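Let's do one together. I've listed all components of the complex below, 616 residues spread over two lines.
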Amino acid sequence: MNTPAPGRPHGTAPGPQLLDLGGLRVELKTGGRWRTVIQGVSLSLGAAQAVGIVGESGSGKSVTARSIARLLPRGARVGGDVRFDGEPVWAMNAARLRRFRARDLGIIYQDPRAHVNEMHTIGDFLTEGIRDHPPRERRERAIAALQATGIPDADRRLKQYPHQLSGGLLQRVMIAAAILPGPRLLLADEPTTALDVTTQSEVMAILAEQRHARQLAMIFITHDLDLAAAVTDTIAVMYAGTIVETGPSATMHERALHPYTAGLLAARPQPTRVASLYTIPGRPIAAYESGPGCVFASRCAHAQQRCLETRPKPRQLGDHVVSCHRAEELQHILHQALERA
Amino acid sequence: MPALLEAENLRKVYQVPGGKRGTTDLVAVDRLSFQVQAGASLAIVGESGSGKTTTARLIAGLESPTSGVIRVDAQARKPLPWSRGERARHARQVQMVYQDPFTSLDRSQTIQACLDEVLRYHFSQDREGRSRRISELLSQCGLDDRHRHRRPRSLSGGERQRAAIARALAAGPQVLILDEAVSALDVSIQAQILNLLASLRSALGLTYVFISHDLGVVRQVSDECIVMHRGTAVESGATETILTAPKADYTRQLLDAIPRPGWAPKRRATHPAGL
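Okay, and this is what the predicted structure of the assembly comes out as:
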């Protein structure tokens, strides 16, 4: 690949990263028609690093995460490359894939209730991935995982059923289950979207502690740029099945280079001030609705003829990678707008 | 000037399964009082279990308070059940917009049929008059005549919420209760709907009761706010004051939990029951 791999920190030697997505394309069949939902996503993630994939509905952020775990609907057309530690995930045989999902990956979903069996105890759920270990070890590891996620009274919790736990508590059980087999990569798909803000803060803090203690890498899928910026090293902003910008999380707020990223930042109401909100006209589109040009052109206030005609390639600009023909000329305007917002 | 909407010492108790006799009392709202002047916007803020949605349902007349009084235009509300006439009269005073227009709109009805139904029920206008009114409602909500024959499924999330707002306005209410009305929308769409709500309020002189968990949203749309926690108001006053200089510990916790540049997630020192 000639395009710079977003998410790779400066100065690291090229070589297999923990996770490498190269030109990922996904087509899904909906309503009898094949529709492109991911069109050329490239992303790299080193060990213990965290990338936030931020986007609105239809951006393809969840499908990207599911492609990594090979959890797409049967028959999905997948192109490009997904490599875990250099190994192509989509070429794994059934046994290797099972082991990859059970041991190397930890997955946390938005709605924990949809991903637990209500008939099984918390203890059974937690130890599902390590069934081949002796019972005593399973129990000890389950208790340790619950304690690590700050769940008091772990002994009692093991015998309880999901319905006896609040949403925040159940999400912490999901984190415990995800980290218990000792994975190297966490896929967290909107893990706190259904939670109250104070509970979200707590769940994210626990997740951060566990990531640091275990040197866990994380793909964090969210619609919330502010939240992603706080808990990841790098942010990738997705729109219509492509990554339009990547850059360091810490400075995304001041140095966004893509008009869509800047628009997202300016559209978010803040509790500290009142303003007529900046709005991006229209609605988010899906990959299959995008034309030959820039995917954001139809909603972009700065679009010109070439934006409608040619798809911009990802380019390195400072410590960002941005897919915008006009990134250099717009830099100044966008920064002024962000300062006002 | 008397308040347009007034709540005095509201209390709502539900019987829920549990306890020794099979049921136990759950106090959803307790000792809640507030006043909203005509044209003002009051936000009721809280997390799950705070009682904010119960409060919305009480004001909307979907439930009766266990004790306490709600006054609209200085008239005390009768307890439910209401007669058809009373229900219609209340519906012309207070309307509600829900979080999810997919479930609050009839999926088999076109937007035109949906609005026409409300107009026919409340007003004695002829077909032509209703049709003109439908055009007016659509344009006020940022839709147009092309949306008349569409059904909810063929609209985008933002368009659906605009249609739900148009339907609420069709009854000609003075008060709109917005129950998490922008919470499920994408950020870029949420900003459009927030701006629409602000312009509708000033153009039509509407009064809002805005139920939300999102303090950023609350800041944009309300003059005053009440912060609720476990059924009671922990703090109330001007929104700006509360969000910039909160007095209650709980309000401070809520504000501290909002992600922003430089923010880091924190574990709580003490755990509330249930978490």
